[in-house]
Amino acid sequence: MRVANKLRLGILGSGCGTNFLAINSAIENGGFPAEISIVISDIESSVILSHARQLNIDSQFIDPGSYRTKLDEAAEAKYVSLLTEAGVDLVVLAGFMRILKGGLLSSFEGRVINIHPSLLPSFPGLDACQQALDHGVKVTGATVHFVDQGVDSGAIIMQDTCRVLDDDTPVTLLDRIHEVEHKIYPAAIAAIAKGEVVKNGRKTARTTISEC
Amino acid sequence: MRVANKLRLGILGSGCGTNFLAINSAIENGGFPAEISIVISDIESSVILSHARQLNIDSQFIDPGSYRTKLDEAAEAKYVSLLTEAGVDLVVLAGFMRILKGGLLSSFEGRVINIHPSLLPSFPGLDACQQALDHGVKVTGATVHFVDQGVDSGAIIMQDTCRVLDDDTPVTLLDRIHEVEHKIYPAAIAAIAKGEVVKNGRKTARTTISEC
Questions:
Q1: Which end of chain B is more exposed for a tag (fewer CB within 10 A), N or C?
Q2: Chain A partners within 8 Å of B142 (Cβ)
Q3: Cross-chain CB nearest to A166 (options B120, B137, B205)
Q4: What architecture is the A7-206 domain classified under in CATH?
Q5: pTM summary value
């Protein structure tokens, strides 16, 4: 991964883009060599695209095709083209509601990261907060991980925790987890941009310790 | 569960009894109505029995029988007899290396608790620290839970966390988890003794909030 210059990020999102905004703020506040090169969404009216436009960041809608939960082959090829043309080093999934399995993962092998609203390996997949509430855990959190072919199964880069309260609903719990996400996602990207994250199989280590 | 008077604890352990000592210290320091009525071990030479004798707490060895990982039927009946004779309200597993499936669980239904060195549902069963290191998680912890017929699958009472460090071994990680255990196991027992823990299916809630 290129680290001598700025790490060029391509952010994929379908929703409100709060993680995108947190990452953008962290970059603006300085301290690590990264820049957001492009924001792509599968939803034309998504808030993340509006935010990107307001921030004068290159933003693109690409029709995902006919599937409900993944990109079709032609769409995935367009994502790869756009990301490649934008010179993206690291693909950052930020609330992107499509499973990636094909060309994008092979084109950006080991360079796609995601954030998940649980302490993986607990509660992978959809509705992580509901899963956590149903199981009755007292602690949950968020996980930044490399994306592989599985569901939320890639090597873990960073995790942090928050309490589950007795009267939590999925909404109140997710609000609290979002606060964790907005800290650790920028911190994980900063660590990658500084060349500190070393991946060895499914384990990652830090070459230097700069606590998130 | 009797809460008007002191909650009578029966502690089962096979090892060093550090959780037993933490529980005993917490009781001696006061603040919650509980007492340790009896300590039972399946290992005659176990350190937990030595500690109990030194503290003048009734301590008993009961031969577990011929199985390697569980109690045989006659042995389990002896455990039930001793616990019942000692007037035990709550059976506290503290490093007890035998699976309970039979008479003990039915005799003390909903009144057997255990502590596990992970944030369940991640890494149940043996070698939880090795499992956590192999998976590459950055956060783990300990879980106090009710014991049911499954492996570390009962309703969760309390959890707390600790960091996994890049250079952790199973031994260094377990040391750090033990520090967590020695806080939350007494805290969970205190909450039960005060009648604060309400179990509803696989969820537990606290009637009053006294943070661990």
A1: N
A2: none
A3: B205
A4: 3-Layer(aba) Sandwich (3.40)
A5: 0.89
